[in-house]
Design goal:
Elements (H helix, E strand, L loop, with lengths): L1 H20 L4 H24 L5 H22 L3 H19 L12 H7 L5 H4 L1 H5 L2
Helix pairs in contact: 1-2, 1-3, 3-4, 4-5
């Protein structure tokens, strides 16, 4: 039954693809992106409540989050690919070492990754200053 929660991730991926296809139509793009984000919140809550969490599910969920944010970063900012490259670096470093405990066990990661993960907050909250100064 754990595959049921993973289906939410596949649906989110499809929604992100549709949002990207509609990126020149902001209302439609935003609608599909918001639905994807809503499913992101719901699938995590449901998986924990139904005790159907898995290492793959946690990895896949974050992978899809990065795809969505990468799409937005690249569209709204000329250097967006650089921002998402840093996010992907953090993702690879933390998940290759800590797996499902990626938020709390990033001590062996490179210094930049440790600094980004210092407060165990998602990367995009650390980059608010960059966005606000664009």
């Amino acid at each position: 039954m754990k595959w049921a929660m993973t289906c939410f991730c596949y649906i989110r991926l499809i929604l992100l693809f549709v949002a990207f296809c509609k990126i020149d139509h902001p209302n439609w793009c935003l609608l599909f992106y918001i639905i994807s984000i809503s499913l992101d919140a719901l699938d995590g809550i449901a998986a924990r409540h139904l005790n159907q969490t898995s290492a793959f599910g946690a990895w896949f969920d974050i992978w899809i989050d990065l795809i969505g944010r990468g799409m937005l970063w690249s569209y709204v900012y000329n250097w967006g690919y650089f921002m998402i490259a840093i996010e992907w670096t953090v993702f690879v470093c933390t998940h290759s070492q800590a797996g499902g405990k990626w938020k709390s066990e990033a001590q062996q990661a490179p210094l930049i990754v440790q600094k980004i993960m210092e407060k165990s907050e998602p990367f995009y909250t650390q980059m608010k200053g960059v966005v606000n100064n664009m």
